[in-house]
Specification:
- This protein is mainly α.
- Helix content is about 75%, strand content about 0%.
- It is built from three helices and no strands.
- It starts with a helix and ends with a helix.
Length: about 70
């Protein structure tokens, strides 16, 4: 995961209402936490590909629609 991808994720989350700390220690902790979440998500994607997990289009569309409603 590139640092630029982390920054992009922080921008997305900030636009969703996440408060970014003003102090450097708070920002560093937030970056570590978000990076950890991104790593976990990437590992799940890789494991799903390894296990050949497939998702139906209907399930994906429902998840996307639910996410959009949250925004």
């Amino acid at each position: 995961i590139l640092y630029s991808e982390l920054l992009e994720e922080l921008i997305v989350r900030r636009s969703g209402g996440l408060q970014i700390p003003d102090d450097s220690a708070g920002r560093a902790k937030l970056e570590r936490d978000v990076l950890g979440e991104m790593i976990d998500a990437e590992l799940l994607v890789q494991k799903a590909a390894e296990e050949k997990v497939e998702v139906k289009d209907e399930d994906l569309e429902k998840q996307v629609d639910d996410r959009i409603k949250q925004i």
